[in-house]
Specification:
- With 67 residues, the chain is mostly helical.
- The protein has 5 helices and 2 strands.
- The chain has helices spanning 7-13, 18-25, 29-37, 45-55, 59-62; strands at residues 2-5, 63-66.
- The chain has a two-stranded antiparallel ribbon with strand order 1-2.
- The longest helix is centred in the C-terminal third of the chain and has 11 residues, at 45-55.
- The mean pLDDT is 94.
Length: 67
Amino acid sequence: MGIIVNLDKVLTERNMKSKELAEIIDITEANLSILKSGKAKAIRFSTLEAICKALDCQPADILEYSP
């Protein structure tokens, strides 16, 4: 399975829409959608930091490893 992205779960817990997060962290909704779907090949630490800051969470809340 590899890396699982739990961004939808965290967004729901924070009552935030993807569009709102995209605006806050200054990326396109399309790029956020790619990240949420788990189809992204990489994520910049600056983007991960911005997501964690906006959602008041830790990287482990968003990303999970499953062998």
